[in-house]
Design brief:
Helix content is 72%, strand content 0%. It has helices spanning 2-16, 22-46, 50-78, 80-113, 122-144, 150-160, 162-165, 173-188, 191-201, 208-222, 229-233, 251-260, 269-293, 300-309, 319-333, 341-350. It has 16 helices and no strands. The chain is mainly alpha-helical. The longest helix is centred in the N-terminal third of the chain and has 34 residues, at 80-113.
Length: 360
């Protein structure tokens, strides 16, 4: 509009051949000034501070990394032992946070698509199982930290008793090996009690052939021989009902089996039975999912973790031997029905006691 007015004024002046009067000249100056200011204002509106903010953020991040690197070098030079613990804690928090986000995604997917736990893939099932155990231990630390100034005492206890109070994310590589050896030594102490209980139950087995098979199996294990798969599966009827079914186990046998599964034995008999059933059912479901996936698809660390969960001290066994042992376990597990899960529970002892490389 302003440009059209200027052009009309100029045309009128040129057409008349007369010089513009003072009023017209003033009007033209105001129009030109307004156009110039409008151009400047529009150019200012197109300028954005985003570039400046990005450059500032990149500068802050760069400086933070430099300062953090200097701090790490200072700790590693002057406080090497503390630096090892510091790095383990920082990596532990990062791994725990990543595990929490992954567990949340899996849970959200289960709720969205109405998927049950046993319908998940092997890795998703194993992740949720391990995360539940880890978060239970963390919640215990959170509860005892609630009283005023108790958090300082908790940090001291975490430093003094890392195996009992910290989850595996916060262990150093050396601690991981040492602590797994300690845990296996604790569960191995229950093996003689479990085998002794099986021997005492032999006279209560009604079938003569099953009594003979049970006697042979106990004799083989006590002599240090690793049992064959058919030796164990031949006794599946004994572990269905009386005397070795899940509902017929005595309290002291359930306590010994709980220690063999790294579960607390300090619970009433009813809770011990329910927990052993639940734990064995989860392992059975994991075994079925693992068969679908295939042992060959597992990494070396996944194979060793799977073997350790099922009773084998895999920290000192070669990867190939771990894969062989896990294959034997899966053959037994996938041959059992839900009513025969007591045999799978005892298999933690029967299959792992004399395996090559585990007698330390």
């Amino acid at each position: 509009m302003a440009l059209s007015r200027v052009c009309w004024a100029r045309t009128a002046l040129w057409g008349s051949g007369a010089a513009p009067g003072p009023y017209v000249s003033r009007r033209l100056q105001l129009v030109r000034c307004g156009l110039a200011r409008g151009g400047l204002r529009s150019s200012k509106l197109h300028l954005s501070p985003k570039a400046d903010v990005k450059s500032l953020l990149s500068y802050v991040v760069t400086k933070t990394k430099v300062i953090n690197g200097k701090y790490h070098r200072f700790l590693s030079r002057h406080f090497p032992r503390f630096y090892v613990l510091y790095t383990a804690f920082m990596k532990g928090f990062q791994m725990l946070w990543a595990d929490a986000k992954k567990a949340r995604r899996i849970k959200a997917n289960m709720w969205k698509h109405n998927i049950k736990f046993h319908q998940l893939s092997y890795r998703e099932m194993e992740h949720l199982r391990q995360f539940r155990r880890d978060i239970t231990k963390c919640l215990f630390l959170g509860v005892i930290s609630v009283p005023p100034f108790a958090n300082y005492l908790v940090f001291l206890l975490m430093y003094l008793f890392p195996r009992q109070l910290l989850i595996h994310h916060f262990w150093t590589p050396k601690q991981q090996i040492d602590f797994l050896d300690i845990y296996h030594a604790l569960r191995k102490q229950s093996h003689p009690e479990i085998l002794c209980y099986l021997e005492k139950m032999i006279p209560l087995i009604s079938d003569v052939g099953l009594r003979w098979h049970m006697t042979e199996l106990c004799t083989k294990i006590q002599r240090g021989t690793h049992p064959a798969i058919h030796d164990i599966l031949a006794l599946r009827e004994c572990f269905t009902n009386h005397p070795l079914g899940m509902n017929q186990l005595h309290a002291f046998q359930m306590k010994a089996l709980s220690r063999a599964m790294l579960l607390t034995p300090y619970l009433p008999s009813l809770l011990l039975r329910l927990r052993l059933k639940s734990h064995t059912t989860v392992i059975h479901q994991l075994d079925k999912a693992l068969v679908k996936l295939g042992i060959a698809q597992l990494t070396a660390q996944e194979v060793k973790s799977a073997c350790y969960l099922r009773g084998l001290n895999s920290t000192h066994v070669a990867e190939e031997r771990c894969r062989t042992w896990l294959g034997e376990w899966l053959q037994i597990s996938c041959s059992l029905k839900e009513a025969e899960l007591s045999l799978l529970l005892h298999n933690v002892v029967l299959l792992s006691t004399n395996y090559i490389g585990t007698r330390r």
